[in-house]
Design a protein that fits this description.
Blueprint (H helix, E strand, L loop, with lengths): L1 E6 L2 E4 L4 E9 L6 E7 L6 E7 L5 E3 L7 E6 L4 E6 L8 E8 L12 E2 L3 E6 L1
Parallel strand pairs: 2-11
Antiparallel strand pairs: 1-3, 3-8, 4-5, 4-9, 5-6, 7-8, 9-10, 9-11
């Protein structure tokens, strides 16, 4: 059993930055791919970025490429999403998740999820 707790969400002005954290506990595995998703009201859950825990290779959705950076601190068992140049359309609940390789961008296939943290970008 793996548990994730997201933090760092909040209200930020357009053009601002925010750093989200996802603390993992329980039976974590270095074999996981970790990722970030978001879901706005009335919309489907959207893949944002993924990272292999052991190797550190990354993958980004086109919508956030160049603005968001996914990273992890292995010693702290924590996943991060650094977000720059935030736009009102980035407003959503942001979730961290884990999947056994190979994984893909479809949220249906991901095995473990956090509770989410709200990000609101004002204009």
């Amino acid at each position: 059993q793996v548990q994730f707790v997201e933090s760092g969400g909040g209200l930020v002005q357009a053009g601002g930055s925010l750093r989200l954290s996802c603390a993992a506990s329980g039976r974590t595995s270095s074999s996981y791919i970790m990722g970030w998703f978001r879901q706005a009201p009335g919309k489907e859950r959207e893949f944002l970025a993924g990272i292999s825990w052991s190797g550190g290779s990354t993958d980004y959705a086109d919508s956030v490429k160049g603005r968001f950076t996914i990273s992890r601190d292995i010693a702290k068992n924590t996943l991060y999403l650094q977000m720059y140049s935030l736009k009102p359309e980035d407003t959503a609940v942001y979730y961290c998740a884990a999947v056994f390789p190979p994984g893909n961008s479809d949220p249906v296939g991901w095995d473990y999820w956090g509770q989410g943290t709200q990000v609101t970008v004002s204009s």
